[in-house]
């Protein structure tokens, strides 16, 4: 049992409220996932020329790491939040990520892109929300997750969201039965995985399909054929997010939509604090149907 949440703001005037609203959603999903939590924030205000790299590292490495990358890359800016660093630079993913992998094996890349920032930690979701000061974040949309570990270890690498492509991420409530075979197939196609978590495999599958110029709706529809198990997904890109429940639909989900926002969560209690949510169109996503916003 895990908790997933998503929030898409339709009005730019509300973008500065994104972190505040999402904080309450994750807090209210703590009961579904007490082991770890994470979230992805999409903010398209940044320069389109630069990439943002979200990194998790030990605080004792922080200062030396910053000094090192500033020597090796130009136009670097660094944002420190708890044990995470967001590096903004014009350096391409191929160049920057390979440099990190060669020189800093103890540092985890948790996401990258032109608009995405990802943060995740082990521990109580309520405390994680406070450590990252989530209420201060702004942006157009976000997804989050609270985890109850079942099939893999309680580690940062085992926490959601998973990002396996530029400005892409996935959170998942459920369990996949064919993830080991699918992982082997994706590795042959060039994908790399940092954990044994089934959700990372699903994220890799989705990013592989998107790299083949398939739409998110087409990609998630193909999940229904290629992914065995029980799942509710929220998949994010820099344009918006999409929701899918498998055709058996034993994993809960609820959507609240109005003129200002779309909120998605495992349970209604996650969105009960949102403004005039009770006046919204509230419904459960149908089994095997892909719902998209902003795409």
Key phrases:
alpha+beta, Alpha-Beta Plaits, 2 domains, seven-stranded antiparallel beta sheet, four-stranded antiparallel beta sheet, 30% strand
Describe it.
By secondary structure, the protein is α+β, with helices and mostly antiparallel strands. It has 2 domains: 3-46 and 119-293, Aminohydrolase, N-terminal nucleophile (Ntn) domain (Glutamine Phosphoribosylpyrophosphate, subunit 1, domain 1); 47-114, Alpha-Beta Plaits, CATH 3.30.70. Helix content is 26%, strand content 30%. The protein contains 7 helices and 15 strands. The strands form 3 sheets. It has a 7-stranded antiparallel β-sheet with strand order 7-2-8-1-13-12-14, with helices on one face. The chain has a 4-stranded antiparallel β-sheet with strand order 4-5-3-6, with helices on one face. Strands 9-10-11-15 form a 4-stranded antiparallel β-sheet. Strand 4 and strand 5 (84-89) form a beta hairpin. It is globular, with a radius of gyration of 18 Å. The chain starts with a strand and ends with a strand. The mean pLDDT is 93.
Order of strands in the sheet with the most strands? 7-2-8-1-13-12-14
| Number of structurally distinct domains | 2
- SSE string, helices as H and strands as E: EHEEHEEHEEHEEHHHEEEEEE
How far do the termini sit from each other? 29 Å
Number of strands: 15
What's the CATH H-level homologous superfamily of the largest domain? Aminohydrolase, N-terminal nucleophile (Ntn) domain
Q: How many helical elements?
A: 7
Low-confidence stretches: none
CATH fold group of the largest domain: Glutamine Phosphoribosylpyrophosphate, subunit 1, domain 1
Quote the average pLDDT.
93
What is the CATH level 1 assignment of the largest domain? Alpha Beta
Structural class: alpha+beta
What is the strand content? 25-35%
Helical amount: 25-40%
Q: How does the overall form come out from the CA principal axes?
A: globular
């Amino acid at each position: 049992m895990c908790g997933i949440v998503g929030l898409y703001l339709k009005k730019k005037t509300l973008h500065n409220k994104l972190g505040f609203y999402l904080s309450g959603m994750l807090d209210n999903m703590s009961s579904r996932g007490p082991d770890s939590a994470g979230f992805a924030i999409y903010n398209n205000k940044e320069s389109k020329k630069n990439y943002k790299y979200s990194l998790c590292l030990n605080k004792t490495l922080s200062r030396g790491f910053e000094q090192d990358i500033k020597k090796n890359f130009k136009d670097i800016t660094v944002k420190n939040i708890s044990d995470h660093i967001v590096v903004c630079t014009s350096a391409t993913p191929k160049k920057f990520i390979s440099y990190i992998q060669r020189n800093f094996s103890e540092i985890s890349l948790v996401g990258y892109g032109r608009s995405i920032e990802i943060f995740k930690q082990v521990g109580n979701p309520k405390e994680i929300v406070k450590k990252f000061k989530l209420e201060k974040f702004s942006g157009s949309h976000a997804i989050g997750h609270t985890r109850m570990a079942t099939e893999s270890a309680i580690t940062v690498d085992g926490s959601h969201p998973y990002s396996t492509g530029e400005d892409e991420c996935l959170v998942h409530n459920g369990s996949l039965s064919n993830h080991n075979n699918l992982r082997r197939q994706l590795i042959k196609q060039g994908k790399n995985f940092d954990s044994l978590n089934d959700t990372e495999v699903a994220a890799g599958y989705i990013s592989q399909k998107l790299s083949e110029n398939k739409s998110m709706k087409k990609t998630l529809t193909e999940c229904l054929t290629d992914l065995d198990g029980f799942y509710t997904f929220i998949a994010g890109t820099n344009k918006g997010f999409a929701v899918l429940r498998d055709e058996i639909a034993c994993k809960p989900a609820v959507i609240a939509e109005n003129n200002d926002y779309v909120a998605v969560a495992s349970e209604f209690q996650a969105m009960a604090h949102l403004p005039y949510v009770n006046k919204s169109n509230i419904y459960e996503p149908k089994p095997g149907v892909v719902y998209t916003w902003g795409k």
